[in-house]
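Supplementary Methods. Inverse-folding protocol.

Structures were first reduced to a discrete structure-token string of length 471. This string, shown here, constituted the complete conditioning input.
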């Protein structure tokens, strides 16, 4: 019994390792791809600061006050132009068909997200003099308008705008996630953190992660629809990316509250994020969603369509994203978050969610390292400092050099980390053929070894001896 128990434990550990290892590879892939995009986003921020007469060492992860767009319509037009350029470049890279273009495409498609996030925060910054309630209402109106625009964009366009709809949706989701956190982190993560704030930040992190997992599960049914997704259906992927972003920024704030400052703290942060990602992936691997899959199949067979909610009316799903309900009636959205999960492919969605959140959080931390590197070089050369920058364009040139070096190093590295779900059909077929060949050769080697082993030879001799005696 003990031997059987040990064998079972080893088998479970091997299965867990087989699930977590590809997940960590995917996490590293998203991290490096997003870092590549962040490098060039920092260049855009720096150029914007210089063109508007601002010190490029101030507000390095956003646009400055003078370059902030004052009108929402102008902001949207600027954003759509960036998304169009990103879609065209993605289409050109997709025509190549080689593996290195997959990582480059991921970086290019993420590039507009940080642009929109910076533009949206600049737009909302002009209302900083208003009260918190007024700012919250303006924030809500801006995000609702952005969500409506993102869900109105067709998801299926011809070349060279094939990826345009996805880029717009994910980029606006990124901006909405930042807008979601702009007030909450000012409460839970002020400049001076104490024990009470850290505990509150941990609770808030658990809440946004719960919402992110739930929204991802609700969006899984959209992939199984036989009809064309409507505007409400397309809202779920947008909300999912928004909650991934909110979770990533909150995770970075929480981890940074417990680590040292400087490069040592950055290394500690990366190590903690890796452990966190593995821990969440291990938890997801232990979840049994077989009953949920059976329920989803039954609903599809009966021709019923839920609205992204299994046991509650459709209108209740909106209440999760209305802040006042969390204050007066928190049990209403919590019922939604803790109710049963239906849908096909939920577990795969959750694995992808963990990789996305961890990779995005690590890339956010890395963007700070890129800015610190540029600042250190500029300070050593006496070009710029935080108070005065007499040679701003030389500083921007340093940022360009750092972004170029990062791209040259990381893009080839991404070839080794591309997850299978991003492979082209040709690569998937080649991988299946290679795997089958390796398995066939391995089986042949094992059979040969078993035939030549002493145990097998002795067994064959005994068999021939028994046959001789019987004769």
């Amino acid at each position: 019994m003990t031997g059987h128990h040990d064998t079972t434990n080893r088998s479970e550990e091997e299965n867990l390792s087989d699930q977590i290892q590809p997940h960590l590879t995917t996490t590293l892939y998203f991290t490096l791809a997003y870092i590549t995009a962040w490098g060039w986003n920092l260049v855009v921020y720096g150029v914007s600061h210089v063109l508007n007469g601002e010190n490029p060492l101030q507000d390095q992860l956003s646009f400055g006050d003078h370059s902030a767009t004052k009108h929402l319509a102008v902001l949207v037009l600027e954003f759509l132009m960036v998304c169009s350029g990103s879609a065209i470049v993605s289409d050109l890279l997709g025509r190549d068909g080689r593996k290195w273009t997959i990582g480059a495409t991921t970086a290019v498609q993420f590039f507009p997200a940080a642009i929109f996030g910076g533009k949206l925060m600049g737009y909302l910054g002009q209302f900083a003099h208003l009260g918190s309630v007024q700012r919250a209402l303006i924030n809500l109106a801006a995000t609702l308008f952005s969500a409506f625009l993102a869900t109105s964009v067709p998801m299926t366009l011809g070349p060279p705008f094939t990826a345009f709809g996805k880029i717009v949706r994910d980029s606006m989701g990124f901006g909405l996630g930042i807008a979601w956190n702009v007030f909450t982190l000012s409460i839970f993560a002020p400049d001076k953190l104490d024990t009470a704030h850290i505990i509150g930040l941990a609770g808030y992190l658990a809440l946004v992660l719960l919402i992110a997992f739930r929204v991802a599960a609700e969006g899984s049914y959209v992939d199984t629809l036989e009809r064309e997704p409507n505007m409400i259906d397309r809202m779920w992927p947008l909300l999912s990316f928004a909650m991934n972003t909110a979770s990533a920024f909150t995770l970075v704030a929480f981890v940074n509250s417990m680590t040292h400052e400087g490069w040592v703290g950055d290394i500690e942060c990366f190590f903690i994020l890796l452990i966190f990602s593995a821990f969440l992936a291990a938890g997801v691997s232990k979840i049994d969603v077989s009953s949920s899959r059976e329920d989803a199949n039954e609903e599809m067979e009966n021709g019923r369509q839920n609205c992204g909610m299994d046991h509650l009316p459709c209108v209740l799903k909106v209440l999760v994203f209305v802040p006042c309900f969390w204050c007066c009636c928190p049990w209403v959205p919590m019922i939604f978050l803790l109710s049963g999960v239906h849908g096909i492919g939920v577990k795969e969605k959750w694995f992808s969610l963990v990789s996305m959140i961890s990779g995005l959080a690590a890339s956010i931390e890395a963007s700070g390292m890129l800015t610190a590197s540029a600042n250190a070089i500029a300070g050593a050369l006496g070009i710029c400092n935080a108070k005065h920058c007499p040679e701003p364009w030389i500083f921007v040139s340093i940022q360009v050099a750092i972004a170029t070096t990062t791209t040259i190093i990381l893009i080839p590295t991404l070839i080794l980390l591309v997850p299978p779900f991003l492979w082209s059909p040709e690569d998937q077929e080649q991988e299946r053929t290679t795997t089958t060949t390796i398995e066939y050769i391995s089986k042949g080697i094992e059979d040969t070894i078993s035939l030549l082993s002493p145990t097998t030879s002795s067994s064959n001799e005994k068999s021939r001896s028994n046959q001789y005696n019987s004769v």
